[in-house]
Each structure stands twice: as C-alpha cells, then as structure tokens.
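Researcher: Structure prediction, please.
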Amino acid sequence: QVLVIESGGGLVQAGDSLRLSCAVSGRRFTDLLVAWFRQAPGTEREFLATIGESSDGTYYADSVKGRFTISRDNAKNTVYLQMTNLTPEDTAVYFCRAGATWGRGTQVTVSS
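Model: Predicted structure follows.
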C-alpha cells in the first residue's frame, strides 16, 4: 500500500518562495509517476506538474510554468515542488499524487 505525505506548506507573503515535499512509501518509488495538484476553496482540483521516474520527464500546467519547478530525489523517495514569486491566487491546499494514491494535502496561504 502506497502512503503519500505532503509537507512544507505555510503562510507566506506575496513574492516569497516555498518548497513543498511529497514523501512516498510502500512501493518502489521509481515505478511511480508523481504529480502535484492544488485546490482552492470552492474550486475544482487543479493539476500543476508531474514528473516521471526520470527527472527530465516533467510537465507543467501553463498557470505555473516558469514559476514552479518539480523535482525528485529517488534516494529519499521524495518529490519536491519549488514555488517562486507566489501571489495570493496561489493560496490553496496542495496535494501530491503518487500513482493512484493521494496525500491529505498541505495548506499554502499567500498574503498580499
């Protein structure tokens, strides 16, 4: 059984950067396609970025391309989402999905 745990969220100011982590256990990590999503109140869950077993296999939503960077450390079974130049519109719960398993999310709040 795959277990996914997100961390790194918090309250930041507009223009700040933040790095989220997604720790995965329970299955060979390199077999898993991992993706980040977010969901703001009253909205549908939005895809942000994905990364394959090879770190050069990345894909981004247009809304975050150039500001967010997804990466993975296979030795630590962890995927990261580096977020820069944050705006209040980035306020949401950020979720990680590994294979078909979702984590519970981590809250990111950006104040103006």
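Model: DSSP finds no helices and eleven strands in the chain.
Researcher: Thanks, that helps.
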